């Protein structure tokens, strides 16, 4: 047994070393270690101990620990190849649906290109357009562009309709008439019950979560001085992060601090935007004008949102880092934007939240990008990830059935799918629905616990909080009207209430 454990540890260590060597920050890190080896603080006769001490004193140990923290969380997980998929897998239909959805979205984008006579992979930008774009880069709200013929490729409702139409493998003894087709109960994804959620979010139920502001300021200062990502993550679990420290804490947790090579990457993305005219540029402008520009909380950030999302659309590293579903299906393949992400209605609201954390577009960009890759992508594609939108919907339905049976029965009597009422909240992680200060608290908890399950918990407690009004109406429009205004909602006390009740 010990030999097997040793072999496993050795394999993991070797995998870590090989992966670290592929990172952008490996070369500067390696150079710093080389400098330490040549320094007087390292004794050749006791190389191992003195070099280890020098690395620690120089702060490189913390940097290496943070790199390993981020790698273990994401990049070291095995990816499933198409050839490895078992056709008897009970989730095979869901994986196939994910690939088909992605192809359908790309097909729609390509069809729009054909309709508007644009190249699907972009075309050189004419010089006058390039000069105008460059001159107005910091004031892109003044950039003139005709968007009359452009429309969002898809919206939350479109992906929900696909999810609700999915049919899983029918069991021989199953009475399909007793299982409403709009429930997610046929999906065999593991989700937690309330007891397991309490254990996962137990830090939220401790009295120390109510620490005073001066005490939290001091804790934030000490943790940020340590530069230790796991400590920053643990601090976010309290849910009352002081605003001046939030951006720095999020950057450590997401590993998104900006280095010189990141600035070079940003400049290359900007140059690509200026050089190439792509259909996604119009979709970005259209989405911002339909959403953030009309929102009292975000319209002032319109210019920086154009910069961030235009560069996001050109970032090929995103396509490399995102884990898409794999499933071998026949049919024509369609071109995707360079980032692999087709803009959808409301995508800019994910980025808009970060405008309250960073003054610099570059710092904002890399933290938003890291958050999107780790969390938002799972909410906006059909996938089998335990933190994906399907799992989050399934968790919502199970919690509603178990802990709000009256509401569940009320929805069923009205023939209204409960998930239709909250799906836009879940898919957009409440961005554009909660006031910014409360949305930041909710996202603190997502980062602190590294889990999107908080979205289902929060959606349930909002329905519970307005249960009396919901029980008195009998139409979807009336239900949506009751739930439309979340301006008075306080995230932390409601989540704590949801977790503590029987």
From TrEMBL:
Cross-referenced Pfam families: RabGAP-TBC (PF00566)
Superkingdom of origin: Eukaryota
Sequence ranges assigned to domain Rab-GAP TBC in this UniProt record: 240-450
Name of the protein in question: TBC1 domain family member 19 isoform X2
Encoding gene, per UniProt annotation: LOC101900214
